[in-house]
Amino acid sequence: MSLFKNRTVVGVICILLSLLICFGVTPLFNQSVSQKTEIVRVVKEIKAGEEITKEMVQTAEVGGFGLPENVLRQSESVVGKYATADLSVGDYILNTKLSDTPAAENTYLYNLDGTKQAMSVTIKSFANGLSGKLESGDIVSVIAPDYKKQGSTVIPAELKYVEVIAVTAGSGYDANQRDAGPDSPSAENEKELPATVTLLVSPEQSKVLAELESDGKLHLSLVYRGTPANSAKFIEAQDKVVAALYPAEPVQDSAPESQEPEESTASEAPAESEVQ
C-alpha cells in the first residue's frame, strides 16, 4: 500500500495507462468504426404491400459499426420480396420488413391458376350485400330479380354456389377479411361499409354475372360459412352443374377429311381407263 502512496509511482502508472489507451485501444476502436460493409438501401419510396424491384433499391458502402445484425446486404435477397411496412428513401432494409408473399388482402389474387377468375360486383345497397356481414371464404347464392326481363326472381343455375374471396370498402381496402392482422389496413377500416364483393367464378359464370351487374339488379344470400373442406364441396357441386350446362365441344379430327379427295381420285382413275 505504501507503494501507491508514492506520487511518482502513481504518476508513472497513469502515464502508462494513457499510452496503452492512446496507442492500443483507440486504434483498434477506430479500425472497427472505419471498417466498411455493403448494405441494401432504398432509393425510391416503397409502400407497404408493394413488390420491390431493382429500381427501388441499391447497394451502398457504409460503416459497419452499429449496424443491426438483420440488415440485408445483397440486393438479390430483397428484389422480388414484398414490403410489410412503408420504406422511405435512404432507409436500410431489415429482413423483418420483408415478406415472401404479398399482403394478406391481396393474397387471393396471386392464387389464381387460370381456370377461374376473380370478378367484382357492386353492392347497390346495404341489404344487397348481407348488411356488411360477408367474409372471404363464404359460399353465397346470387339472386337475380326480374331475371332476363321475364318478371321472375331466380337464382341462375350457374350462380347457386359461389365463393367470396374479398369484400372491399369504398376506400379500396378489404373491409371484412378473415385472418387479417390487427395492424392491417383492413383491420383499420373494418367499420367501413362494403362497396364491392369479389367472387371466384369460371368464365361461364362471369358472363352471367356481367349481365346482372349491367342490369344493376342482384342480391347475395349466404349459403355456408365454415371449414374450407366443406366449402369445397359446394364449389365442386357447382362446377358439375356448369360443366353440364356448358359441355366442352369435341375436337374434330380433320385427318379423314383430307384423305377423301385422294380416295375419290383413285376411284376415278380406273373409270377413265375403262372408257379408253
From TrEMBL:
InterPro entries the record matches: Pilus_assmbl_Flp-typ_CpaB, RcpC_dom, SAF
Origin organism lineage: unclassified sequences, metagenomes, ecological metagenomes
Record-linked SMART domains: SAF
Protein name: SAF domain-containing protein
Pfam families membership: RcpC, SAF
Domain (SAF) ranges: 37-99
Comp. bias intervals (Low complexity): 266-276
UniProt region (Disordered), positions on chain: 175-194, 246-276
Organism annotation: bioreactor metagenome
